[in-house]
User: Which sequence fits this backbone?
């Protein structure tokens, strides 16, 4: 008779298999869209390129758009994980904010622009949730800076977070990482009290 360890091992194996199939599907679909264009990719192509049956693919995703939204969600989760790591490695509240804003601006700068894929995934409810999560993350850093007496108190942290995020969107059109860092300096100057602004 089997003990409790066998079903757990079986469940772990199934979960690992499902995660591997899911990751392979996400990566394959994004690569196909980048190569052939959004409208040219079919579920049959994705299944064939991934090496799974169409019926299996449909157990995971309803259509190509659903795959791409899941791909983007995974991509965003990795970005947030990176930003959290940057925050955790920085020093005081001001250094944390500076490090996170620079890391975020560099992500914007390095992101491919004007693609069909970007147009699809940068809208909708999942993207709005990610934007709110980013706003909350930056707001919390700003709040810590205000409480530490390092940042301006005359504007609500929520408004400052929105300012930072929208201003850093300009990084997408800059010509170099040096220019990105200058933009971050300008944004940081805007969140400091008037007497300490750069």
Assistant:
């Amino acid at each position: 008779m089997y003990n409790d360890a066998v079903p757990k091992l079986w469940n772990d194996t199934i979960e690992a298999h499902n995660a591997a199939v899911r990751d392979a599907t996400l990566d394959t679909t994004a690569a196909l869209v980048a190569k052939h264009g959004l409208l040219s990719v079919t579920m049959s192509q994705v299944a064939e390129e991934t090496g799974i049956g169409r019926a299996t693919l449909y157990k995971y995703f309803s259509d190509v758009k659903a795959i791409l939204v899941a791909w983007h969600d995974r991509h965003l989760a990795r970005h947030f994980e990176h930003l959290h790591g940057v925050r955790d490695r920085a020093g005081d509240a001001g250094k944390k904010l500076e490090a996170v804003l620079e890391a975020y601006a560099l992500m914007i700068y390095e992101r491919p622009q004007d693609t069909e894929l970007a147009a699809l995934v940068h809208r909708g409810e999942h993207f709005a949730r990610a934007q709110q999560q980013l706003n909350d993350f930056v707001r919390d850093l700003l709040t810590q800076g205000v409480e530490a007496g390092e940042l301006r108190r005359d504007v609500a942290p929520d408004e400052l977070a929105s300012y930072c995020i929208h201003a850093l969107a300009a990084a997408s059109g800059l010509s170099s990482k040096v220019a990105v860092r200058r933009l971050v300096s300008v944004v940081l100057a805007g969140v400091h009290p008037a007497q300490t602004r750069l």
